[in-house]
Hints:
Residues 8-107 form the ChrR-like cupin domain. It contains no helices and 10 strands.
Amino acid sequence: MKVTVKNSIVKSSSLAWKPLVEKGILYQGVYVKSLKYDEKAKRSPSILLKFEAGASYPYHNHPGGEDIFVLKGSCKVNDEHMGAGDFLHTPIHCKHGVSSAKGCELLLNIPQEVEIL
């Protein structure tokens, strides 16, 4: 028996940027677009994030790791500078914070929810 799997294309340009709110906390100047929602986990493991100039996301742990690709602008992950086209793989249980002095847009894959430290 052949199983047909349907692809799911998301036209991200048609999605609105929404303020990033996690567990009731608003991260000022950080916006999100969900690319894939996991109904079972009640979260989006694949997202776009936009940081306005001066915005940041606090120091946190990645129980399931993370992948970040910088689409536009630049950011700092801990003390490492990343620019458009740069990719970061964060191994399981590694920790960092993210900030952007001039603003950026990032593509993220986050298999498990992060833990703010």
